[in-house]
Specification:
HIT family, subunit A; binds zinc ion; five-stranded antiparallel β-sheet; alpha+beta; binds guanosine-5'-monophosphate; globular; single chain
């Protein structure tokens, strides 16, 4: 999708250091990290949110989680633990309408989930 910032990153129209790339997904650092390790894993294909995934895209969903797991090991936060987060739609607080999995680690996190 032309106007989508994450499509531009996946298509390398915007130069961003990719921490991972495969046929389905890429990973890069969040521009505004909220914890010491804050990585986003996104599909190369433009899919707005988890709510738009189809059964045929199961492999893609699994791939994003495996990429997060491997990056956590590579970045040295696997043992201390981390959080994986998909925000979905308005109530989920999703701001960028292109699926992204947050990999969050490097410090102890509170729950901080409340209905506003
Ligand atoms: P959401 O709230 O949609 O789950 O998270 C969107 C995330 O994308 C935010 O953490 C935000 O900092 C990050 N983000 C937004 N625009 C950019 C960008 O242009 N580059 C990078 N690296 N991260 C971005
Ligand atoms: Zn997109």
């Amino acid at each position: 999708m032309k106007s989508c910032i994450f499509c531009k990153i996946a298509n390398k129209e915007i130069p961003v250091e990719l921490l991972h790339e495969d046929d389905l997904a890429v990973a890069f650092k969040d521009i505004k990290p909220i914890v010491p390790v804050h990585i986003l894993i996104i599909p190369k294909k433009h899919i707005e949110s988890i709510a738009d995934l189809t059964g045929k895209q199961e492999l893609l969903a699994g791939r994003m989680i495996m990429v997060a797991k491997k990056l956590a090991e590579k970045l040295g936060i696997a043992k201390s633990g981390y959080k994986l987060l998909f925000r979905v739609g308005r109530n989920g607080g999703q701001e960028v309408p292109h699926i992204h999995l947050h990999l969050l680690g490097g410090g102890r996190m509170s729950e901080n989930i409340r209905v506003v």
